[in-house]
Structure prediction request, 237 residues.
Amino acid sequence: MSLRDAAYQQIRSRLMSGTLSPGTRLSHRALAKEIGVSFIPVREALSQLASEGLVEHRPQVGTFVTELNREELAEIFDLREALECHAVGTVAERRSDSDLAALEAQIAEQQAVCDEMLAAGQLSWSETQQERWRLSDASFHLVLLRAAGNCRLLKAVADLRVMVYTLRYQQRGRSVEGLQRIIADHRRILAALRSGDVTAARTFMAEHLRQGCREALESYDRGRLEGAAGSQPAGPP
Prediction:
C-alpha cells in the first residue's frame, strides 16, 4: 500500500467513525503528523476524497468535511435504493452458500448486540456496541454488493454510505426496538435470497432503505432543532 493509499484509508476511516464531523476544517499538516506520513500523501488523499464528494476544498479558506443538507441526504438514499435493489435482485438469481452464510453471520452479530442491551437493561447502545453494529450493518450490505459482482456499484454505494455516516445521525442513540426492526428487515431480505425470489428481495430492500431514509431525515431535523435551540441566548434566571 502506498503512503497516499494509507493516508486515504486513515482519513476515510475517521469519516466513517464520525471522528471527523461535518464542517470540520482539515489541516493537511496536522493529519500528516497524526498519520505518520509527509504532507504530499495527505494532500493527494484529500484530493481523492474531494473527487468522491466526502470533503470539499474552499479556495483560500481550506479543506472541510462535506456537510449535506436535507435534500442531499434524501437524494443519497434514493440513489442507494436504485443501486442496492438492482444488486440484491442480481444476488437472488445467482446466490451462493458462502454469500448466504456471510449474511447470516452479520445478522447474528447484530442480534448479539441487541441481546447484550436487553440483558443489561440499556435504553440505548454504548460506544462499543455502536461500533460493532456499524461494522456488521455495513458488512451486511457490502456482502450483497460484492456478491452482485459489480465493482463500480460496490464503490459507489460504499462512498454514499460514508457520506451518510459523516452526519453522525446514527450516534444519537438507538433503542433496542429500532435495532430489532433492522434485524427483521435483514432477515426478510435473506429469506428472499435463499428462496431465489427476485421480486421479494428487491421489495424488502426498498422498504428497508426507505425506512432508513425516514429515520435519517428525522434525526437530521432533530439535530437542526437542537442546534438552533443551543444557539438561542439564555433566558432570565
User: Anything to note?
Assistant: The chain has a mean pLDDT of 89.
